[in-house]
Design a protein that fits this description.
289 residues; alpha+beta; 10-stranded mixed beta sheet; 4-stranded antiparallel beta sheet; 21% helix
Length: 289
């Protein structure tokens, strides 16, 4: 019997760092109801697919990443169409909230960050997108109750984040910090750490505005230095020579140089719905100084 993708990944010990997918700026839209395989294209009971496609194209044309959100369980918004524009870039982080009367009005929302109400309250979004991958439904929904007990105002369910094999997966905004292999008892401590300006490296996949190799380099540097602050180890430069990466990070005005060798894994199954295994990128630490 084939194991669910997240069970198989945990048995293999798949590496989390470097698995956070790209997202410099985000548009979060409350889609308050059941989601299809694509929250914007297949959620017929909640959002007209043709309008969902127009919204997706509108957001993507601004080089933003689109994410559906909804309140957990009985806390759902009863048809409200709240939205958030999030900037996850280092040095530019921000969250702006707004609301429209109907989903078509989203097409009139300026995407340059000039609209909405600024907020310094984090957003914690847990992937529960079960029709995209069953591990997200099973493990993601197990995480939600512990979060809502402690942080109900911060907690949202969200659509597909990527990295299904690392379910439960969640992301903390505005920084766009991806976390994986999160179980019920882990989630509140991740938010606790974030509120103190820290990451939880045991579960951190990477920051969405940074490339995979920088995410991995940061992880190695954090472990060497014992420094889990969010606002440090930002990239100064990256250089690639064939399959070797040299990444220079800033640490309190001192540089940390990490050299990685890029490779590929043995074929693995990365989602529950995959019909055949495939390889993923790997990074081996060569040196650090």
């Amino acid at each position: 019997m084939t194991l669910p993708c997240s069970n198989a990944a945990r048995e293999r010990g798949d590496s989390l760092p470097g698995s956070g997918s790209r997202g410099l700026r985000w548009f979060l839209l409350e889609v308050d109801g059941p989601w299809g395989h694509s929250a914007f294209l297949n959620s017929h009971k909640t959002l007209d697919p043709a309008l969902g496609l127009r919204i997706a194209r509108h957001v993507e044309s601004a080089d933003m990443r689109l994410l559906a959100i909804r309140r957990p369980g009985r806390a759902r918004g009863e048809g409200r169409w709240r939205w958030a524009i999030v900037d996850s870039r280092v040095g530019s982080t921000s969250i702006h909230w707004g609301e429209v009367d109907a989903p078509a009005d989203v097409l009139d929302v300026p995407l340059d960050g000039s609209s909405g109400t600024s907020s310094n309250v984090p957003i914690v979004a847990v992937c529960t997108h079960g029709l995209h991958d069953k591990c997200c439904a099973v493990r993601g929904r197990q995480v939600i109750p512990a979060l809502t007990d402690r942080y109900a105002d911060l907690t949202w369910e969200c659509s597909h984040l990527g990295g299904d094999r690392f379910a439960g997966t969640m992301i903390v905004f505005p920084e766009g910090l991806y976390y994986g292999n999160v179980d019920e008892s882990d989630a509140p401590s991740i938010v606790d750490a974030h509120r103190r300006g820290l990451v939880e490296p045991q579960f951190l996949r990477g920051r969405s505005s940074l490339s995979a190799e920088v995410q991995v380099a940061q992880d190695h540097a954090r472990r060497m230095l014992g420094d889990n602050r969010i606002d440090t180890l930002h990239p100064i430069s990256t250089h690639r020579d064939h399959n070797r990466w040299t990444i220079v990070l800033d640490h309190d005005r001192h540089s940390v140089t990490v050299v990685l060798e890029e490779g590929v894994s043995e074929p693995i199954t990365t989602t529950c719905s995959a019909t055949r295994p495939g390889s993923v990128r790997t990074y081996r630490l060569v040196s650090m100084a």
